[in-house]
Design brief:
The chain is built from one helix and two strands; from the N terminus they run ββα. The chain has 56 residues and is α+β, with helices and mostly antiparallel strands. Strand 1 and strand 2 form a beta hairpin.
Length: 56
């Protein structure tokens, strides 16, 4: 942990920063998985909205 002290004697603690890296573009099978997840999420949200309209 990185610590500094100012002129009044107050300590400032800083967390260790992780190494930076660039994200890689998702592979085609990952993109297909994201499409399936979005379709499933859309289905759930649509069902919840329809149920809420039918209850009210």
């Amino acid at each position: 942990m990185y610590t500094t002290t100012n002129e009044d004697g107050i300590l400032n603690n800083y967390a260790a920063e992780p190494k930076m890296y660039y994200a890689e573009y998702p592979a085609i099978w990952e993109q297909r998985k994201y499409v399936l997840q979005s379709l499933f999420a859309t289905l759930i949200v649509t069902a919840l909205v329809l149920v809420s309209f039918s209850v009210s």
